[in-house]
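Tokens in:
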């Protein structure tokens, strides 16, 4: 039987596979033995060990149960899945998927919940070219955008309030072929019965209370939660006493900004320049 030599330093996925193999061999198990304990075929075990198949959350949890390793493999999987994301954001996404109200303020880029796949791919590819993330992480980032949007299609759907700095709709990500459909997506999103989209124009000046992206969630039990980030750090705030001032400022921003009708008209005007 040919035994492929592994290179665990080549990628996070390869490191995961190498750890599975070493844990298995330390116990004297064959791939068939581990597969039987985990509920997977031996071929699947082999593919994960050699890095040919990406592990899943279910696979990682099954491995932890089989090896008795607590959540070791699950944490390693999360590093693969979310390693390129700022601290706090993966947890935020989990809460976002069940929130009853979602409020977004974004600067410079369209928020992930409203991105087209093409727009998301351009941003991810750009990060790869800068060396900020790996190609595998780029694929996971685009996949995460799709999963977040799919989580909004539930009954009842969440209320989604979106406040975009004008830079979001004027920054030509990917050029006209990408921006045209992306702006059309914003207009379609604004037409949904559970959404409000507004643009904070440049001339609001000092009346904008936020200079950095901010996301505020209202959970089904009315608990408030906020996520804010800078270029290098992300922070998830769970204390309502800290989130309430942010929510108040968000309401003030909504009151100061142009209406949804005026905002959609601006988006439509910019979209015409991309056609």
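Residues out:
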């Amino acid at each position: 039987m040919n035994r492929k030599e592994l290179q665990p330093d080549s990628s996070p996925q390869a490191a995961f596979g190498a750890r599975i193999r070493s844990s298995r061999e330390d116990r004297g198990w064959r791939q068939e033995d581990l597969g039987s304990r985990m509920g997977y075929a031996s071929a699947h075990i082999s593919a994960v060990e050699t890095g040919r198949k990406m592990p899943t959350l279910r696979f990682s949890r099954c491995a932890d149960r089989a090896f008795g390793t607590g959540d070791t493999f699950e944490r390693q999987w999360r590093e693969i899945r979310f390693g390129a994301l700022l601290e706090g954001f993966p947890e935020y996404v989990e809460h976002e998927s069940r929130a009853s109200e979602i409020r977004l303020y974004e600067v410079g880029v369209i928020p992930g919940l409203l991105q087209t796949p093409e727009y998301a791919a351009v941003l991810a590819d750009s990060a790869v070219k800068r060396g900020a993330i790996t190609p595998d992480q780029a694929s996971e980032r685009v996949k995460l955008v799709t999963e977040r949007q799919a989580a909004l299609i539930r009954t009842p759907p969440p209320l989604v309030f979106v406040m975009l700095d004008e830079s979001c709709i004027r920054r030509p990500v990917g050029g006209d072929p990408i921006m045209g459909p992306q702006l059309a997506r914003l207009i379609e999103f604004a037409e949904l019965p559970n959404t409000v989209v507004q643009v904070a124009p440049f001339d609001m000046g000092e009346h904008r209370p936020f200079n950095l992206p901010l996301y505020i969630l209202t959970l089904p039990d009315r608990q408030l939660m906020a996520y804010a980030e800078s270029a290098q750090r992300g922070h998830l705030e769970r204390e309502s006493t800290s989130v309430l001032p942010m929510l108040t400022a968000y309401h003030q921003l909504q009151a100061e900004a142009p209406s949804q009708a005026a905002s959609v008209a601006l988006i439509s005007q910019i979209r015409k320049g991309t056609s």
